[in-house]
Amino acid sequence: MARKHPGARAAHAATAALAVLDAAGVTYTALPYRHDPRAVSFGAEAARELGRDPACVFKTIMVVHDKNWATVMVPVSAAVDLKATARELGWKKARLAAPSAAETRTGYVVGGISPLGQKVPSPALLDHSARELVTVLVSGGRRGLDVELSPADLLRLTDGRYAPLAA
């Protein structure tokens, strides 16, 4: 894994997520891939196109309860357990955010929502399966771009924590 350096950005359009990574000086790799506009499972598409194990590629899911928001990251091979998520957040229950509301809050389009560089940051939870991984992949802030970084850096940059979230 190589830290991005000046001039390396030509391979992909800049995003708020990449700006956060660059500003923090963490080691990461930007992984652009050809996005198929007909794709319905963006995370599975990323894993397939990048030739990565779906257990290492994490999807970003925005959840809500009343006026509370949270960012949840689970492997693309799993679903999010909303009851476990609510319990971890101290909420009575959690539901998936409406796509348009998630886009407005994060500044990203569905399928490109990154846990990094959101317009309005939310508490972040990363599925505990990431503890066993050297690196994880998350959206880089647009469809067709993932970033690979250590789970520790991801949690530090999102002020997040591990939790059992996958169903």
* DSSP helix fraction: 25-40%
**Counting H and I runs of at least 4 residues, what is the number of helices?**
5
User: Which structural class matches the secondary elements?
Assistant: alpha/beta
The shape, in one word, is globular
* E-strand count: 8
Question: Order of strands side by side in the largest beta sheet?
Answer: 4-2-3-5-8
State the low-pLDDT regions, or none: 1-12
Helix and strand layout, with pairings?
Layout: H1 16-24, E1 29-32, H2 42-50, E2 58-65, E3 68-75, H3 82-89, E4 95-96, H4 99-106, E5 124-127, E6 136-142, E7 145-149, H5 151-158, E8 161-163
Parallel strand pairs: 3-5, 5-8
Antiparallel strand pairs: 1-7, 2-3, 2-4, 6-7
Notable traits:
alpha/beta; disordered N terminus; 167 residues; three-stranded antiparallel sheet; single chain
Overview of this protein structure:
β2 and β3 form a beta hairpin. It is built from 5 helices and 8 strands; from the N terminus they run αβαββαβαβββαβ. The chain is 25% helix and 25% strand. Strands 4-2-3-5-8 form a 5-stranded mixed sheet. The chain has 167 residues and is α/β, with parallel strands linked by helices. The longest helix has 9 residues, at 16-24.
At a glance:
This protein has 167 residues and is α/β, with parallel strands linked by helices. Helix content is 25%, strand content 25%.
